[in-house]
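Below is how a single chain appears once it has passed through the pipeline. First comes the sequence as given, then the structure the pipeline wrote out for it. We keep one example in the README because the format questions we get most often are answered faster by looking than by reading.
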Amino acid sequence: MRVAHRRTTAVRRLTAVTLGLLALTGCGGPDEGPDDRQDATAKATATASGTSAAPTPAPDGTAPSTAPSATAPSATAAGANAARWAGTKQFVQIDDARTAGGRTYLSVRPAEKKPHPRFEAWVIVPGEGPYTEVSMTEEAQVLLSVPLGDAKHPAAYAQDEFVGRLTGRPSSDRALLGFDLSFDGQGRVTRVQSLYTP
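Resulting structure:
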């Protein structure tokens, strides 16, 4: 009798231990498989790390947005001005010029010109506001007069020589120079002509 009693007690203890282990492992219901438990673990890990495992639908049932929170910047003022000047002629000041990737870029700002009261030359009335960078076409023509050129009458110069002559002058001198620019239909400069100023 004692042996049978011991066996019964051992079976009961073993059953209790087995049930305890099943409870600790967190077995799910009949519809929850191993993949579901792995998904739950992945979501918990992602939440702990500060990331989202998957976007949740909106309250109205629509699909969640996958767009980034920061919106892309709109077209710059430079691009807007270049488009506005497409197919026109503009009188401008050029504050700076540079060459990059085989193309010449100019920092320009609209200005005004008035005939000189005593000479056959021009007086430049500086504009206001920021400068806009525009590009020149590869075949754009450059015509320079004194003080950027070597003579009173305009003569043709290469684009790189024009850039060197302009940037070699102090910015205070550049503010006194004026240029007639012609733009193509894409807002690129096709012709630059400096005005003669004594």
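The chain has five helices and eight strands.

See the next section for the split statistics.
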